[in-house]
Amino acid sequence: KKMEKKKIKVDEEGLGSVDSLLQSLQNVQKNLLDLTEKQAEEISALEDQNNIELIPFYEKRRTVIKKIPSFWSTAIQNYPSARQSIDEEDKIILNYLDDVDVVRETEKNKITIKFEFKENPYFTNQTLSLELTLAGEEKNLNGTKINWKPEKIKQSQETKFFGWFGGLDEEEDIETEDMLKEMLENFKIQRFEMFVDELWADPIKFYNNEYQSEDEEDGEGEEDEEEEGDEDEDEDENENGDEDEDKE
After folding, report:
1. Residue 96 gets which letter from DSSP?
2. Which of 1, 105, 161, 201 is deepest in the core (most CB within 10 A)?
3. Is the pLDDT of residue 4 over 80?
4. How far is CA 234 from CA 123, 193, 241, 245, 246, in A?
5. What phi and psi, each to the nearest 5 degrees, are found at residue 110?
6. pLDDT by residue (tens digit) across 20-39?
7. What is the pLDDT of residue 172?
8. CA 126, CA 117: separation in Å to the nearest integer?
């Protein structure tokens, strides 16, 4: 009986101790969240300032790029995330691409990619834009509706890269399941963000085709290891052959 009373007493003390610790934990957690929110605001303000300071350098880069023939067309076609969505028809259209620009409107939580085209036989638009808007945790992507010339309607249905602009048409909206539409939209948003963070940030390495993905680097490493392994096997076989000859 004494043992039972002692056990009950320990449990009661333990519960009291846990309640006290949880309260302390909640206080610490609140301080962490407050500080994290404050830091996020400071980081956002710093990023805004950095973006403002970068504008003249982007403009200077833009001026130089416009003097290089087919710069953006080449960079985009060499960019892995875009390359898989570019067919032969897209390549022809991209030859008319004259300039690319990214505009950040921090106050509106909006980023826009602008593609400037020379007059071409495919569509009448001079500018095609993709606009990503942030609303809390939601991201919305809107693209320019392409005004295809009547004789190019067939090609417009076959193109892959230019399907990035605008949404699904009405018939596809009816036939496509909501989950599939959401996946397609998320894919377009992901490609938008990668375009800004990678291709726009450093287009020169893609123009020069100097970029290698981690998978490609791993693949080359595996090939090198396989080649080294084959060389070792050949050396072993040669050594064994020499030994056999000596025995004879």
Report:
1. T
2. 161
3. no
4. 60, 48, 10, 17, 18
5. -135, 140
6. 888 888 889 999 999 998 98
7. 46
8. 5
Number of Cβ within 10 Å of residue 206's Cβ equals 21
Task: Say what the pLDDT of residue 235 is.
Answer: 56
End-to-end C-alpha distance for the chain, whole angstroms? 92
Residue type at 173 in one-letter notation: D
Report the alpha-carbon distance of residue 30 to residue 132 in Å, rounded.
32
Q: Which residues of 145-160 are buried (b: 16+ CB within 10 A; e: fewer)?
A: ebebeeebeebbeebe
What is the spatial distance between Cα 34 and Cα 19, in angstroms, rounded to a whole number? 23
Among 25-34, 121-130, 157-166, the range scoring the smallest mean pLDDT is 157-166
- Nearest CA to 92 out of 145, 159, 191 is that of 159
What are the structure tokens assigned to 122, written together?
Answer: 């495919």
Mapped onto helix, strand or coil, the DSSP state of residue 95 is coil
Q: Which of 197, 245, 182 is nearest to 81 (CA)?
A: 197
Query: Tokens 């001079």 sit at which residue?
Result: 126
Give the per-residue pLDDT at 153.
77
Those residues with Cβ within 8 angstroms of residue 164's Cβ, 6 or more apart along the chain or in another chain: 85, 130, 143, 188, 191
Helix (H) or strand (E) holding 27: helix 2-65
Is the confidence at residue 115, as pLDDT, over 90?
yes
Locate 213 and state its tokens: 């993905």
**What's the half-sphere exposure (Cβ side, CA atoms, 13 Å) at 33?**
6
Is residue 1 pLDDT above 50, yes or no? no
